[in-house]
Structures are given as structure tokens and as C-alpha cells.
Design brief:
Blueprint: E1 13-14, E2 28-30, H1 51-68, H2 75-90, E3 100-104, E4 109-110, E5 112-114, E6 119-123, H3 124-129, H4 133-148, H5 152-160, H6 162-169, H7 174-185, H8 195-211, H9 217-232, H10 241-244, H11 248-259, H12 274-286
Helix pairs in contact: 1-6, 1-7, 2-4, 4-8, 4-9, 5-6, 8-11, 9-11
The structure holds zinc ion.
Zinc ion (ZN) binds near residues 32 and 146.
């Protein structure tokens, strides 16, 4: 069975259950991530949150996330992701927030998201899907770009309403925080960005990835993996979400054109860091 949210600012989550297609284990795919452009809303942009409010909101929501999700109990791996994130954050055009990066222990969950204020979470299931550090970095760079692009003020206001956000920012309403946390982690999944935001996060994310010393082609490689994974879950054309979202091919084509603007890595350096990733991440997660 596939459950797809019907939120007006739709972002899809598919939750295949055992027995569907080739899936032997439940795998949650939050397609908002890179595969699909989340929201179809084409309205006027607005950002009503100040940086201070974003940070306050992100702080509160991150505490709620960590009450609900289990962080990976592996300091070395947490440090690896934090270091990868720091490298990317240093290349971000937005420096008025302090980015933090944590791994959630959920091997079946292919997901990552950033909260306002720069709080980012990566699921261990997504890390297992990556073959090298640059692919992981490409997802993180895309998420940093949402923060750098000030996307949360608009998207979260549309998703949750101004009053709910303000009550959380002011620390007045624990229930509101619980509602928001549940929705972010529930079937609706993560943030509901507009298509425009997703395009911007792709462009800016690839730039951050390159500036941080990674091969920008990794973003395309990971997107290809998401497409494959989607096919394994029953074929993308069978998913209702494809009826209401821009074709993935459209995003791939845009990124294929974009990647040509970047120089090839110098001889002897592929900018992927596969060996380091295998040793410090994949071998550890398999244990
Ligand atoms: Zn996105």
C-alpha cells in the first residue's frame, strides 16, 4: 500500500508495506528530499520570520524531533557527519545561523531535512544508500540551501499557520510544538517547499557542494539512486505523486545542464571520497 499525503502543499511520502513489489522491508521514502519538487504552490513569496525567530523555532522543533526520534549512538559517525556538514556550511552564502548536523538511527528511512535556523537531521537509511561522501554531501548541501535561501519562513507558515509558529517561538504552546513535530515526522513528512524553493535549493545546493570541494556530479548520481529506489517500490508512474508533481526527469535535466558549468576535478582526484566513506560510514552501519 502506498500512502501519499493530500496536504494542500503536498510533499509525498510513500510507505510501501511488506509484500509490495521487490520490497522485503518497509522503506520510507520521503521524496520531497531530492526526487520531487514537493509543493505545487505557485503563490507570492513571503518570509515573515526574522533570523532570531527562525533560530528560536528551529531550536524548539529540534528538541521535539529529538524527543521523538532516536539519534544514532555512535559518536564517531556523528562527528563524521558533523564535519561533512561543517565543510558545506562554510561554503554556504548564509552565515548568520549556526548549522548543526545529527544522524537519526533509522536504517529503513531514506530521509534528511533541515529546520529553520540550520538544524539538520540525516537518517542512517539515507547514509546507507550513498556510495560515497559526495553523495551524502549533495543531500546535505540541498538542505543547507533551503536554510540559506530563507525558505522556511514561507513554507512553514503555509504548512502550519502563522499563529501556531508564533506560539512555538514564544514558547507558549507545548501542544502546538507536538502537533508540528508529529506532522514533520508523520506521513506528510518533512517540509513542504514550493517548486521554486526546490529549484533554488538544487541550484544553490550544487554550488555549495562544489565550493566545499566535492564533485557536483554526485548530486545527479544520488538523484538517480532515488529514481531507482522509487522504481523498486512499484514504479514511479504508478505513484499518485507523479500526477501532481513535476517529472523527476525535469530536475535531472536541469541539473545535467547545470553541472556542465563546473570544472572537472583535477587528475587523480574524483571529489567523491568513496574509500573514506566506505571505511568510516558504510562498514560501521553494516555492523
Ligand atoms: Zn528540497
Amino acid at each position: 500500500m502506498l500512502v501519499v499525503s493530500n496536504h494542500s502543499l503536498d510533499c509525498a511520502v510513500e510507505r510501501p508495506t511488506a509484500g509490495r513489489g521487490r520490497a522485503t522491508k518497509p522503506v520510507v521514502l520521503v521524496l520531497c528530499l531530492m526526487l520531487l519538487g514537493c509543493s505545487t504552490y505557485q503563490g507570492v513569496r513571503f518570509n515573515i520570520l526574522s533570523t532570531e525567530e527562525e533560530i528560536r523555532l528551529g531550536q524548539q522543533v529540534s528538541e521535539e524531533i529529538e524527543r521523538r526520534e532516536e539519534l544514532l549512538d555512535n559518536p564517531a559517525l556523528q562527528a563524521y557527519v558533523a564535519e561533512t556538514g561543517r565543510r558545506l556550511a562554510d561554503a554556504s552564502p548564509r552565515q548568520d545561523v549556526q548549522y548543526t548536523f545529527k544522524v537519526i538511527d533509522s536504517p529503513e528511512n531514506i530521509n534528511a531535512f533541515a529546520l529553520p535556523g540550520g538544524y539538520m537531521y540525516v537518517y542512517s537509511g539515507l547514509m546507507k544508500l550513498c556510495d560515497n561522501e559526495a553523495e551524502l554531501a549533495s543531500v546535505m548541501a540541498h538542505e543547507i540551501a533551503h536554510v540559506a535561501g530563507h525558505h522556511h519562513g514561507e513554507s512553514m507558515t503555509r504548512q502550519f499557520g502563522y499563529n501556531l509558529l508564533m506560539s512555538i517561538i514564544l514558547g507558549e504552546d507545548a501542544n502546538a510544538l507536538a502537533v508540528l513535530g508529529a506532522e514533520l515526522l508523520g506521513t506528510a513528512g518533512a517540509m513542504h517547499y514550493s517548486r521554486g524553493h526546490e529549484r533554488e535549493a538544487d541550484y544553490l545546493g550544487m554550488d555549495i557542494l562544489f565550493r566545499a570541494g566535492y564533485n557536483p556530479e554526485a548530486m545527479l548520481r544520488f538523484l538517480g539512486k532515488m529514481i531507482d529506489e522509487d522504481s523498486k517500490q512499484g514504479g514511479r508512474r504508478s505513484l499518485p505523486i507523479f500526477a501532481s508533481h513535476p517529472p523527476t526527469e525535469e530536475r535531472v535535466q536541469r541539473l545535467e545542464t547545470l553541472v556542465l558549468q563546473y570544472p572537472q576535478p583535477p587528475p587523480g582526484a574524483d571529489g567523491l571520497y568513496a574509500e573514506r566513506y566506505r571505511r568510516e560510514v558504510l562498514d560501521v552501519l553494516k555492523k
